[in-house]
TrEMBL record:
Mg(2+) binds at D8, E59. The keyword Metal-binding applies. Its EC number is 2.7.8.7. Residues 4-107 form the 4'-phosphopantetheinyl transferase domain. Keywords: Cytoplasm, Fatty acid biosynthesis, Fatty acid metabolism, Lipid biosynthesis, Lipid metabolism, Magnesium, Metal-binding, Transferase. It comes from Staphylococcus succinus. It catalyses: apo-[ACP] + CoA = holo-[ACP] + adenosine 3',5'-bisphosphate + H(+). It is an enzyme of class 2 (transferase). The lineage of its organism: Bacteria, Bacillati, Bacillota, Bacilli, Bacillales. The gene is acpS. Its cofactor is Mg(2+). Transfers the 4'-phosphopantetheine moiety from coenzyme A to a Ser of acyl-carrier-protein. This is Holo-[acyl-carrier-protein] synthase. It is found in: Cytoplasm.
Length: 116
């Protein structure tokens, strides 16, 4: 049974601007595992796309959960990882979580479906 569906769209340039202004943005948004993957990326453009995609994913997850961010879970407490085939995944107790993340030149978007 579906518990919730969330979707989020963000402008990549907005994340780029935030990253330039807020030095701790990466630590506020990404889990420790995601920070390692972020730091392993070579191209600055790819890092910003990765950060924007993960931000959109976490916003979509909070919408599907129905709680919003900050009330029960922080951005950096949500760990979005890739399985062995590259599919984005989130483990969250009590739910089967389905994640999709996509990028264009200007936008990152994510959809999350939570099943009980």
């Amino acid at each position: 049974m579906i518990h919730g569906i969330g979707i989020d769209l963000i402008e990549i340039d907005r994340i780029k601007t935030l990253l330039q202004r807020q030095g701790k943005l990466v630590e506020r948004v990404l889990s420790e595992n995601e920070q390692q993957k972020f730091n392993d990326l070579n191209l600055e453009k790819r890092k910003i796309e990765f950060l924007a995609g993960r931000f959109a994913c976490k916003e979509a997850f909070s919408k599907a959960l129905g709680t919003g961010l900050g009330k029960t879970i922080a951005l950096n407490e949500i760990d979005c990882f890739n399985d062995e085939l590259g599919k984005p995944c989130i483990n969250y107790e009590g739910f089967s979580v389905h994640v999709s993340i996509t990028h264009t030149e200007h936008y990152a978007m994510s959809q999350v479906i939570l099943e009980v």
